[in-house]
């Protein structure tokens, strides 16, 4: 246990004072492109750089099946197990990619580039940037990458509370907007830019994170005042 904790602390210290090589920046850029969903609708070879394309899809059990391998109408523990089994590939792929990116110095690059933005904006460290970008496309990806940060002691309980508020509100913003939300586009495409509603959702996510940030600050002050008495 002591060796594991020492390894986590040394990893955190290394990320706080990053020495970033060129490959680290390349890894970060590729990671952002993969998790952002930019290439999801491409019809050429660039589509292989999209996370959902890499994740793939299940085959149909029979010709007219629409519910995937889980079927429909399931309940209880068995349905829960099948749901967990369905989520497993997304989590495994996300964690595998993040380990490759970390090995190439991508987290160090994220800390150096994104910390000056994310720290004042929401009070979270720069290395949460990959989880943030991933969560915009898939809630499972965001959860898996955030869990990895927690397991490696790279995010405090306070930062986790703030970041969770960002993750929960309008989760999978880009993925949901360009799937279910796209049906609403004909009603407003002549009145405002197509991307504007999605940007509003992201701004609201940031506002929600800062509301949680304020709540935590006031809660800490209340506890300190109570202990001081």
TrEMBL record:
Transmembrane parts of this sequence: 22-42, 160-188, 194-216
Protein's name in the database: Nucleoside transporter/FeoB GTPase Gate domain-containing protein
Cited InterPro entries: Gate_dom
Pfam families hit by this protein: Gate
Keywords: Membrane, Transmembrane, Transmembrane helix
Top-rank taxon, per record: Bacteria
Species of origin: Oxobacter pfennigii
Domain named Nucleoside transporter/FeoB GTPase Gate: residues: 85-181
């Amino acid at each position: 246990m002591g060796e594991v904790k020492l390894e986590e602390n040394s990893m955190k210290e290394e990320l706080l004072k990053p020495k970033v090589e060129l490959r680290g920046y390349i890894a970060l850029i590729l990671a952002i492109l993969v998790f952002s969903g930019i290439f999801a609708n491409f019809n050429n070879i660039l589509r292989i750089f999209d996370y959902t394309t890499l994740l793939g899809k299940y085959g149909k059990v029979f010709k007219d099946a629409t519910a995937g391998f889980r079927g429909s109408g399931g309940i209880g523990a068995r349905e829960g197990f099948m749901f967990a089994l369905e989520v497993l590939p997304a989590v495994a792929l996300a964690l595998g990619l993040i380990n490759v990116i970390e090995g190439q110095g991508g987290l160090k690059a994220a800390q150096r580039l994104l910390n000056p933005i994310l720290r004042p904006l929401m009070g979270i460290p720069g290395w949460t940037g990959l989880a943030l970008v991933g969560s915009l496309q898939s809630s499972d990806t965001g959860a898996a990458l955030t869990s990895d940060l927690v397991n490696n002691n790279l995010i405090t309980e306070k930062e986790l509370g703030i970041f969770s508020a960002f993750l929960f509100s309008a989760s999978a913003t880009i993925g949901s907007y360009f799937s279910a939300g796209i049906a609403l586009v004909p009603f407003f495409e002549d009145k405002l830019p197509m991307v504007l509603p999605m940007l509003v959702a992201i701004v609201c996510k940031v506002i929600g994170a800062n509301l949680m940030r304020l709540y935590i600050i006031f809660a800490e002050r209340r506890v300190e005042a109570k202990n001081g008495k």
